[in-house]
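To fix ideas, we reproduce below a protein record of this kind.
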Amino acid sequence: MAAVLVWFKPWALWVDETVHEALPSAGPSGDPREAPRATGAASLPPASSSPAPAGPVTVARGVFLSHEHTTTGTARIVRLPDGTHTLRLEGLDTSNGPDLHVLLSEAPVKEGRAGWYVFDDGRHLDLAPLKGNRGDQNYALPTDVDWSDYPSVSIWCDRFDVSFGAAPLAPV
């Protein structure tokens, strides 16, 4: 019986983990001094005549809808001044649970039970374990990934292969 309780972790449903991360202003470390820098291109003119944005820019956005558990909040793909991208979850509020992950997926977001199980069927990218079931949090996207290939984000319970909630990502 004890092994079953340890595996299911039912107490996690009643314990909230709140995260309040600020939006990063540079690469994954958040420190502009550590942002990736181009090498050997100092003498080349800029590729575009328009100046780069001074701060982070939202390039895609979506609102969470509930699947297995009530889930609210927004998801944004943000381009940082150094050209890297971050998935930002804002105002996230969902149930806690065992083995929750943040997935980007090619699967479309579907309402109801039809959308509960689809996010790991095709191409998907497991960004990281969910930092907290409430609050604002950031997940750096790998530089070799085109985020537009993954038009949805899911709070995914890897233990039970089910989406707690998902958001379609529409370019802005």
Observations:
- Residues 54-172 form a domain with the Immunoglobulin-like fold (CATH 2.60.40.200).
- Helices lie at 2-8.
- The chain is about 5% helix and 35% strand.
